Amino acid sequence: MADVKKIATRDSYGNALKELGQLHDDLIVFDADLAGATKTGTFKKAFPDRHFNCGIAEGNMIAVAAGAAAMGLVPFASSFAMFAAGRAFEQVRNSIGYPHLNVKIGATHGGISVGEDGASHQCCEDFALMRSIPGMVVMSPADDVEARAAVKAAYEYEGPVYLRFGRLAVPVFHDEADFKFEIGKGEVLQEGGDVAIIANGLLVNEAMEAGKTLAEAGISARVINLCTIKPLDEELVLKAARECGKIITCEEHSIIGGLGEAVCALLSEKCPTPVRRVGVNDEFGHSGPAAALLKQFGLSAEHIVETAKDFCGK
Amino acid sequence: MTASEKKQLMAAACKVRMGVVEGTHSAKAGHPGGSLSAADLFTYLYFKELNVDPKNPRWEDRDRFVLSKGHTAPGLYAALANRGFFPVDDLSTLRHIDSYLQGHPNMNTVPGVDMSTGSLGQGVSCAAGMALAARRMGKSCRVYTLLGDGEIQEGQVWEAMMFAAHYKLDNFCAIVDNNGLQIDGPIDQVMSPYPIPEKLKAFGFSVIEIDGHDFDQMEAAFEKAKATKGAPTAIVMKTTKGKGVSYMEGQAGWHGKAPNDEEYEIAMKELRAQLAEVEAM
User: Fold this and answer.
1) N or C: which end of chain A has fewer CB within 10 A?
2) What is the DSSP string of A112-164?
3) What is the DSSP string of A202-216?
C-alpha cells in the first residue's frame, strides 16, 4: 500500500475552491479564523479580495453568508464541522435553510479522525443535524477525486449544501479520468450478493478493504459508496437490500442520525431488511492519533469484516 | 423636508398603525407593541428613504431592508402594503393558515421582504453580509436593518457589529428601536444593554441618537449616514412601545398580545382621529 497516494479531503476542498474561483467571479469564501486548517487559505492566496475572515464568530459568519447569497453571490462558508454544523446550527436552519439560500457550508475536521484535539472537536453529529433541515443537501466525499467533484457540483447546484471534509490524509482510489459525480447518486465499487456494505467518507476505503478480505473468506460483499446522505440514492439502496438481504452501514459519525439511520428509515418503510450499523456508538471520542482512534472506535476494515462475518453466520 | 411631505408621512404612519391593529386583531396574535414603536421608522424608510420599486420588488439594485426584530412583521407588512407591494386588504390575513403573510417575515412569500427573519440576532448579520456583497458587486445600493433594544442582548448582534465595522461597511445602517421594553419587562431590569450608543461607538460605528417619532430628526440622521464614509452607521432611536394606541403605550404586556374586538374598536377609533387631525393640517 506504500505507493497509494494519500490526500486529506480538506486539501481537496481548498484546491477545488481555487480552481472554481478562477472560473467564477461570483464565488466568495468566508472563514472563521481557521483558514489555514480548513484550507480555504489556498483560495485566499489566489483571491485575497474574495476571502473574508469573520473571526471566531461562526453564527455571524453563517448568517453573513446567507446575506451575501441573497444578493446573488455564491458563498462558501467554512469552519470545523463542530462549529459550522454544531454551534451555528440555528443560523444554518433559520438564515440558510428556511429561506433556501444558495450557501455552501464547507465543514472540515469531521469525525473522530480529528485525533489529538479530542472530543470537543470530534464532531460526530453533523450529518444528523444537517439532514434534519428541509432542503439541505448533505455530502461526505471519500477521497480527493470525489471531494473536488463534490465541491464543483455544490457550486453548480442552486440551494443550500453541507459538505463534510476530513483532516486525515486518506487513500485516493478514484480514477479521475473516468470519474463522474452526481449529487444524490451512489456508486457500486464492488459487486456482491451476500451482504451490502454502504459507506461514506473515509469509511469507504475501509469498506473496500473489508470487501476484499470477505471475498477471501467466501463472503460476497457489495461495496457501495454513498457520498450524498441527503437526498439518499433510494434506488441503489433498495436494490442492494433486495439483492443482498443484509445491509451494513459505515460512517465516521454517531450511529444516531446519520447514514445508518437514513438507510434504516428507508428500508423499514419500503423494504424491511436486517441492518448493522458501524459508526460511533453513542459516545464521545477522546485524544489520540487518528489511526489508533479509528481502530479503537471500530471504524476500520477489520471491524467491518467481523461485523459481516457475524451477520452472515460465518 | 417640506410641510406637505411631512404631512404625507404622518398620514402614512397612521395608516401603517391601522394596518398593525388590523393584522394582529384578525390574527388574534402577533406583536403590536414593537410594530407601533417602529411604525414611524417603517413609514420613513418605505415612503422616503429606500430606493425600491413596488412594481418590481426583486429589482437587483434596490436598497435592502432587513427586519432583524422579525416579530414586528405586522409593522413591516403594513408599510409594504401601503407602499403598494401588495393589497392593504391582505393585512387582515396575517398569520392565517393559508396566508402568505407569515408570523415572521418570509422573503420567499411576501413581496418586498428582503430576508427571512424572526430568530433574533440573525437579521443584522444577514444585512451585513448583504452590504459586503453589494460592495463586492459594485452596487451603490444601501442596506438597512432594524433591531430591537432587547434583541441586542443576543451575542450575535455584537459579532455582526464587529464585522460591519471591521469591513468598514459604510453602505450599512443599523437602527436600534429603543422602546425600553421586552417581553418580561423593562430591558434594564431583564438584562440591561445600556449604554447603547457608547457600546456601538466602541465597536466602531458612527452613532446618531434621535427621537424615533420625529421625521425631521430621521431625515437628518439618514442624510448623515449616507454622507459617512469608512464606517457603518447606527441610529439609536428613542421610541414609545405601542405608540399611537393609548392603552398600549409604554406597556410591556402589549409586546405580543392581540387586541380583542373591543380593544380593536378603541384603537381604530383613536387612529382614525389621529389621521383626521393630520389631514386637517
Assistant:
1) N
2) GGGGGG-GGG-B--HHHHHHTSTT-EEE---SHHHHHHHHHHHHHS-S-EEEE
3) THHHHHHHHHHHHHH
> Which among A71, A73, A90 is the nearest to B119, CB-wise?
A90
At B249 the pLDDT is: 97
With contacts defined as CB-CB under 8 Å, which chain A residues touch B139? 71
Asked if the interface predicted TM-score (ipTM) of this complex is over 0.95, the answer is: yes
CA-based nearest distance A49→chain B, Å: 9
Give the residue-averaged pLDDT of A249-268: 98
Strand partners, A265: none
Q: Which positions in chain B have a beta carbon within 8 angstroms of at least one beta carbon in chain A? A: 60, 64, 66, 106-108, 114-116, 118-119, 121-123, 125-134, 136-137, 139, 155-156, 159-160, 162-163, 166-167
Q: What number is the average pLDDT over the span A184-206? A: 98
Instruction: Give the pLDDT of residue A267.
Output: 98
**Band of pLDDT at residue A3, cut at 50, 70 and 90:** confident
Give the strands of the sheet with B233-238, arranged side by side.
B64-67, B143-148, B172-178, B233-238, B206-211
A-B Cβ pairs (cutoff 8 Å, strict): 108
- Decide: pTM greater than 0.95: yes
Provide the terminal-to-terminal Cα distance of chain A, rounded to the nearest Å. Answer: 28
Q: CA dihedral defined by A85, A91, A94, A98, rounded to 10 degrees?
A: -50
Which of B113, B125, B143 is best to mutate for the A interface (most A CBs within 10 A)?
B125
CA distance linking residue A97 with residue A129, whole number of Å = 12
Q: Chain B within 8 Å of A159 (Cβ-Cβ)?
A: no
% of chain B surpassing 90 pLDDT: 100
Q: How far apart are CA A230 and CA A265, in angstroms?
A: 12
Looking at chain B, the number of H-run helices and the number of E-run strands are 10, 7
pLDDT for B137-156, tens place per residue? 999 999 999 999 999 999 99
- How near does any CA of chain A get to the CA of B223, in Å? 24
Residue with cell 463534490: A150
Q: What average pLDDT does this structure show over B220-229?
A: 98
pLDDT attached to residue A2: 54
Residue B50, sorted as left (phi over 0), alpha (psi -120 to 50) or beta, turns out to be: beta
Mutate which of A51, A52, A60, A100 to disrupt the B interface (most B C-beta within 10 Å)?
Answer: A60
Q: CA B241 to CA B245: how far, in whole Å?
A: 10
Q: Given CB atoms, is A50 within the 8 Å cutoff of chain B? A: yes
Q: How far is CA A153 from the centre of its chain?
A: 14
Confidence check: pLDDT of A1 > 60: no
